[in-house]
Amino acid sequence: YHFVKEKVLRESKKQVIIKTINKNQFLIGLFIGLWAGDGSRFVDRDAHTIKIHLDARDAKLVDFIGKVTQSIFNKKGRFAREKTNNKASIIIISKFIYKFIDKYLVYGKNKTWTVRLKKETFEYDKKFLDGFLIGMTLSDGFINDRFILNLTSQDLIKNNLTILNMLGYNPKTYTQVRAKYGWHDLHRLYLSKKETVMLKNFLNKLIKKIEINTDLDALKRYKQ
C-alpha cells in the first residue's frame, strides 16, 4: 500500500511483492524441526510443494504451524485431509521455501532414513536449536510422562541427542534392530521422568515467548 502510495510501484493485481522474512532463529528452527520430522516436498511442473504431515484431529497444531509459517514467510499454507482416514497435511507452494530448507537440512534418496542437520549441531545458534527441538517434539516426539523421540534416521537422533546434552540433560538411546522384518532400524532417544518434567516446562516457556496461547499438552492432544 505504501509503495503504491509513493508511486514506487504501479498498482496491479499481478504485482508480486517479495515479503521480508522474519529472521527469528527460534521460529526458523521450529519450522525446520517440524519439516525434518514430518515433512515432504516435491516439484510438479513449476510448482514447488512443501508439506507438513499430521493428524487431521490436531486442530490446535494446525493453527500453531500456520502462525509460525505466517510469521516467517508470510504464508500460512493450505490444510488438506484425506477422506477415508485422519491423515492430513499443511501444504505450501513456494520455490523460495523449498530452497530455504536446503540451508539447514540434507538427506539422501529416502528422506525419512537419512535426514539430518546440514552442519554440526553445535555450530547452530542456540535459539535455532531450541526451536528445532520443539519442532521435532511436535512432529515425531512424545512428551507426556516421558520424553521419547523415535526416528529411523540415526543422524537426526544424534542431532537431538547433542541438543539435549547442550541443554544439560542426560538422554539415553536405544536401537531396535528390525532387519529380520525387512524394516530399517528404529532409533529411540528418551529422558527420565524427572528430566521430562523439566524439559516440558522449559519448552512451554519458550512457546509462550512467541505470544501463541498454547502449550505442548494442547498441541499434542494429551489433555482434552
Rounded to an integer in angstroms, the radius of gyration calculated over CA atoms is 19 Å
Number of helices: 9
The SSE string, one letter per element, is: HHEEHEEHEHEHEEHEEHH
Proportion in helices: 40-55%
Major β-sheet annotation: 4 strands, antiparallel
Uncertain runs = 1-17
Tell me, what's the shape?
Answer: globular
If strands are numbered along the chain, what order do they take across the biggest sheet? Answer: 1-2-4-3
Structure description:
41% of the residues lie in helices and 21% in strands. Mean pLDDT is 89; it is low at 1-17. The strands form 3 sheets. A 4-stranded antiparallel beta sheet has the order 1-2-4-3. The longest helix is centred in the C-terminal third of the chain and has 17 residues, at 193-209. It is an alpha+beta fold. α2 (25-38) packs parallel to α6.
Short description:
This protein is an alpha+beta fold. It has helices at residues 2-5, 25-38, 59-73, 95-100, 111-114, 126-139, 154-166, 193-209, 216-219, and strands at 39-44, 47-55, 78-81, 87-93, 105-106, 116-117, 141-143, 147-151, 172-176, 186-190.
Q: Can you give keywords for this protein?
A:
224 residues; alpha+beta; four-stranded antiparallel β-sheet; 9 helices; 21% strand; globular; disordered N terminus
